[in-house]
Amino acid sequence: MLRQALRWVALPLALLLALLAAPLSAVGPLRAAVVGRLARLTLTAAGVRLQITGRPTQAAALLVANHISWLDALALLAAMPSARLVAKREVRGWPLIGAIAGANGTIFLDRSRPRSLTASVADVARVLRSGTPVACFPEGTSWCGAAGGRFRPALFQSAVDAGVPVRPVTVRYRSAEAATTAAAFVGADTLWASVRRVLAAPDLCLQLTLGQALHPGEGASRRSLARIAQRQGVG
After folding, report:
1. Nearest one of 170, 136, 169 to 153, comparing CA atoms
2. Left if phi > 0, otherwise alpha if psi is -120 to 50, otherwise beta: which for 67?
3. DSSP secondary-structure letter at 175?
4. pTM: predicted TM-score of the whole model, two decimal places
5. What phi and psi values does residue 101 have, to the nearest 5 degrees?
6. Where residue 142 falls among pLDDT bands split at 50, 70, 90?
């Protein structure tokens, strides 16, 4: 109980620190160092142990991960802090988290306006061309279970347009060496309920596996890249 109580104090403090540090993490040479440390600090404050398999890189690439929890984004930033995130527009309205995401240059997608997707893909391609990696969750929503959802191909077009590799990333959660759904944030679940489960989990380990880069060849399509990335990253 004491450990859980400490997490309830530590997590808001870590998020508040991240918000106060947002001006340093938005631009400039300090961005990666600040973002990486704050992401790790926030995971630790929530009682989450991060385990990374594979070699992180800060080179331009489209990082595509399966999506289970709000913690996934923190893990990606802890491993590759120079990356810009892609998130659904609703995240902007989350307490503290939305403000931090906006200040850190998150690219927000408006899923209620499909016609805006073309502009969003162009925005991601522009960031990739600048040499900055971009991390996204192409399932379009979070899933609870090993199978996950289908990778939607739209954002893969940005990697094709920018001529950069796609790097699949697998996210898994374990507790006491067994798979767990404690961190899942799906369906009608609320962020508040998910946070409560995470803080109550006794030994939550977030396993992040960085796969081999997929280099789009001549004539590569977003659909073929999405299929291969899904098999490599989740299957």
Report:
1. 136
2. beta
3. E
4. 0.90
5. -60, -45
6. low
